[in-house]
Amino acid sequence: MRAWQVVRHGRPSHALELVEAEEPVPGPGQIVVKARASVLNYNEVDGCHGRYLTINPPLPYTLGMECVGEVVATGPGQEAWLGRQVTSSGFGAVGAHADLVLASAAMTFNIPPGLSDAEAAAFFYPFHLAHLGLHERGRLAAGETVLVHAAAGGVGSAAVQLAVAAGATVIATVGNEEKAEFARGLGAHHVINYRKRNFAEAVLEITDGRGVDVCFDGVGGEIMLQSLRCLARGGRHLVVGFASGIEAEEVPMVNGRMLCFGNFDIVGVILAYTPPEIAGKIAGASGMPVPRFNPPTTDIAQGVQDHLLSLLDAGRIRPIVGGEVPFSDLPQALEAMEQRQTMGRIVLGR
Ligand SMILES: NC(=O)c1ccc[n+]([C@@H]2O[C@H](COP(=O)([O-])OP(=O)(O)OC[C@H]3O[C@@H](n4cnc5c(N)ncnc54)[C@H](OP(=O)(O)O)[C@@H]3O)[C@@H](O)[C@H]2O)c1
């Protein structure tokens, strides 16, 4: 089968090679998906560079976090998935840019009714992550104000829509005028081009000095620090990602004084559904570069999916397919993402 593998570290066109790889064999908790599409995630750019320490398998390995297709083989106990059309996460968050994908059964859902393959591919991670952030972790309430960074991106565009659907006032930041227009179209009430003006000052103007209740931050670094200047009392800053530089993951972000005087919460968000019995065990594992790993469990996943499907059904959210590219074009598509040129989700065909 064909697979895009990271064979050396560097920019995607340097790091990736299209190779013939062995077909995967599913073990416990695993299924194999015959992929019709996969989708680009920003983490894969960092994976190519070898600077994403959380998911950093030995070389070579097959890149790709998510796919859409048919389940063609299952590990023990997962037989019910056989033949189903699914959106799924590559096992260990790798392996999806291939013809056959070894996937995690705990991170697999039926394709939502009425969605094309490309739309289904654009749906799973952005909306689940945005839901976990805004609702599970951020406790967003109707009438609150939400600041969403990189609002035209794959995850950001979902966060804008979910926050609007929840009855929040949404302030979006974006990196250019085309993205600004796009974010307005998603329902954002205020849009700031944060490459043109200081967004924290703009947010304080918009909120009459009060600040926002929730900040959905997939950019991190300096953008995170600036965001704390416009976070309201009792506000929640959602640490979702580090698109401005994954190195920021290793840097202490806040000190006690900032928390005491800010009277706000810094809230971590991870999308990594795990069966409760396994989650309990890996929570204490020492193999990861973190003091503790507390992934959301599969029972939470189903509740999130049900809520999202009801919003989808009611036409209140829609997956954003920003582009569809042929399988051969993965390196160029990832480089466009790295250069901030993409909007929504970029779907890789087969
Ligand atoms: N916590 C989790 O479980 C989890 C899971 C998946 C993804 N994530 C994170 O979610 C975030 C969004 O992922 P995505 O796949 O949807 O990507 P994306 O938002 O579609 O693309 C990244 C965007 O970040 C913004 N950005 C700001 N500074 C940047 C810089 N210096 N270089 C490149 N981009 C910059 C750009 O938008 P503007 O031009 O508008 O600024 C860019 O388009 C990423 O940080 C990703 O790692 C987290």
Here the CATH topology of the largest domain equals Quinone Oxidoreductase, Chain A, domain 1
Strands, total number: 15
From the spread of the alpha carbons, the general shape counts as globular
What's the order of the H and E elements? EHEEHEEEEHHEHEHEHEHEHEHHEHE
Keywords:
Quinone Oxidoreductase, Chain A, domain 1, six-stranded mixed beta sheet, globular, alpha/beta, binds NADP nicotinamide-adenine-dinucleotide phosphate, 350 residues, Rossmann fold, six-stranded parallel beta sheet, single chain
Describe it.
There is one protein chain. The chain is of the alpha/beta class and 350 residues long. The longest helix has 16 residues, at 298-313. The protein is globular. Strands 3, 5, 6, 7, 14 and 15 form a 6-stranded mixed β-sheet that branches. Strands 10-9-8-11-12-13 form a 6-stranded parallel β-sheet, with helices on both faces. Strands 2-1-4 form a 3-stranded antiparallel β-sheet. The chain is built from 12 helices and 15 strands. It starts with a strand and ends with a strand. It has 2 domains: 2-123 and 319-349, Medium-chain alcohol dehydrogenases, catalytic domain (Quinone Oxidoreductase, Chain A, domain 1, Alpha-Beta Complex), CATH 3.90.180.10; 125-268, Rossmann fold (3-Layer(aba) Sandwich). Bound molecules: NADP nicotinamide-adenine-dinucleotide phosphate. Residues 41-43, 125, 129, 150, 152-156, 174-175, 179, 218-219, 240-244, 269-271, 337, 340, 342 line the site of NADP nicotinamide-adenine-dinucleotide phosphate.
